[in-house]
Design goal:
flat, Elongation Factor Tu (Ef-tu), domain 3, 2 domains, 307 residues, 18% helix, 6-stranded antiparallel sheet, Gyrase A, domain 2, 16 strands, alpha+beta
Length: 307
């Protein structure tokens, strides 16, 4: 997907786009971490933002790992299996998350390893996901944002899941299509819209944080922020009425030289909404405000998801 374009360009053909919105579509994903051992629950309870206790029987929850300063290291879906937990992350986030978790697991009866090769994953889109009949051993876990859910299965069940998707008439979503759907829904991407400088509340990850569990890494910062203050910026949508700004472009604050009112992190050309993007806006910037880029380009700040 180009990083900049004019709104006069017609949206490109997007394989699977209509099916993702109206029926059933899928896209392959990868990346999994296995956390095993007798102390795996207690270990993850102290590492993740989500309450791990009581998670069993294939249940899943959105969870994140934070630095001591409350900044994001990774976020994804935690799935409970009889003898392990499986943390589903983007493949490029797995090595760093494994290295980070393994440092702390060494002091408990817990082991952390890259299990990407053991699992097949498919992001699933559309209302038809509710009727999808999967082979025994495969499961649908929580989705959110643009995803109706995600199919997770042992690698040996790959052909069975593909047959189930084909029998249900599922269309395959191309990478460019997935990019547009993600931005339309306002789903942050790790390493693009969120990184180690980002607080989870800045990118709408409230569902990944338990407000009742005990201590975990970064909890003090999260709790203090929610009790006494608010984030100084938040993830918003941008509509580009003329020319879309490139990813990384900033909106200078005319009243404060050297300061920005916002920054673009992702852009797309949507068949439904035209030229749009994701990015950060200062908490003082209201929805509906029009920001100006360095060359006078305009962007309207809008609520997520786009509608």
């Amino acid at each position: 997907m180009p990083s900049s374009f004019t709104t006069r360009n017609s949206a490109p053909a997007l394989p699977g786009y209509a099916a993702a919105l109206g029926s059933l579509a899928h896209r392959e994903r990868s990346g999994a971490i296995a956390i095993e051992g007798a102390d795996r629950t207690a270990f993850l309870q102290g590492q993740l933002t989500q309450d791990v206790r009581g998670l069993d029987g294939g249940a899943s929850r959105l969870a994140a790992g934070l630095t001591p300063k409350g900044k994001l290291l990774y976020f994804g879906t935690l799935v409970a299996e009889p003898d392990r937990f499986v943390l589903l992350l983007p493949a490029d986030a797995v090595p760093g998350a494994v290295a980070h978790l393994a440092k702390y697991a060494a002091f408990q009866k817990a082991a952390v390893r890259d299990a990407t090769a053991e699992y097949e994953r498919w992001a699933v889109y559309g209302p038809g996901a509710a009727a999808l009949r999967l082979p025994e051993g495969a499961r649908m876990v929580a989705g959110g944002w643009d995803l109706a859910g995600e199919v997770v299965a042992p690698r040996a069940l790959r052909s069975g899941v593909l047959a189930a998707l084909a029998a249900a008439g599922s269309a395959e979503v191309a990478p460019d299509t997935a990019h547009v759907l993600r931005i339309e829904a306002g789903r942050p991407r790790l390493g693009v819209d969120a990184d180690a400088s980002t607080l989870p509340d800045e990118v709408g990850l409230q569902a990944a944080i338990s407000a009742t569990k005990g201590c975990y890494v970064g909890q003090e910062i999260v709790a203090r922020l929610r009790t006494y203050g608010r984030v100084s910026r938040r993830l918003v949508g941008f509509r580009f009425p003329e020319v879309a700004l490139s990813e990384g472009a900033a909106f200078p604050d005319p009243g404060k030289p050297g300061h920005d009112l916002g920054r673009v992190t992702s852009v797309a050309l949507s068949p439904r909404f035209g030229a749009i993007g994701l990015g950060f806006a200062s908490r003082d910037v209201a929805l509906g405000a029009v920001l100006r880029g360095p060359a006078g380009e305009t962007a309207e700040v809008t609520e997520l998801p786009f509608s």
